[in-house]
Design goal:
Elements lengths: L1 H18 L18 E12 L2 E13 L3 E11 L9 E12 L5 E12 L5 E10 L4 E12 L2 E10 L6 E3 L2 E4 L4
Antiparallel strand pairs: 1-2, 2-3, 3-4, 4-5, 5-6, 6-7, 7-8, 8-9, 8-10
């Protein structure tokens, strides 16, 4: 499970790294609206480790600004055991990667976020973000976690990348097995 979440976050971070490089322009615009530096359509990025496929990130559209990279209609497939059958995945309507002053990449995804881990645990949320300072997945939105027949819902969420220490704030739910 930890690898799956880390691959999801790595995929999104790498997506930001891939599109986050730019050259400095010698002219400054008088407009306050940032201008895009690069635009890509139908993006597909494969992530491997020691020659083994770990994740594939898909985005319908990616736009790169100075320190912010946006993507739309995001999908990530995660591979743990087999290079041909995904073990988990994530979808989101949109997301961005932003680099802070210390060089840490903050990843946020929005809209119909759905994450599936290899053990079939599912997370549904309106938004999620990776906090590199605390190495945590966080959300202030409505979340729903489904593991087997157990369902926990609430507003606000914090978890380690393994989904071993999950904390849902303002929680409500039902558990079938005690």
């Amino acid at each position: 499970m930890r690898r799956t979440i880390l691959y999801a976050l790595t995929a999104l971070t790498a997506w930001g790294l891939f599109w986050g490089c730019s050259e400095e322009s010698g002219t400054e615009s008088k407009s306050q609206k940032p201008k895009s530096l690069a635009v890509a359509q139908k993006v597909r990025i494969k992530f491997t480790e020691a020659g083994k496929l770990q994740a594939i990130l898909y985005a319908d559209r990616v736009v790169d600004y100075d320190s912010l990279t946006w993507g739309w209609n995001l999908k990530a497939d995660f591979f743990a055991d087999d290079d041909t059958i995904p073990d988990g995945g994530m979808t989101a309507d949109s997301g961005y990667v932003r680099q802070d002053r210390r060089g840490r990449r903050m990843v946020s995804v929005f809209g119909n976020v759905h994450l599936i881990s290899p053990d079939s645990t599912e997370l549904f949320a309106d938004s999620l973000r990776w906090n590199p300072k605390y190495q945590q997945i966080e959300s202030n939105s409505q979340v729903k976690i489904v593991r087997g027949q157990d369902v926990i819902e609430g507003t606000g969420f914090v978890s380690d990348p393994n989904f071993k220490h999950i904390r849902v704030l303002n929680v409500r739910g039902r558990m079938k097995k005690l």
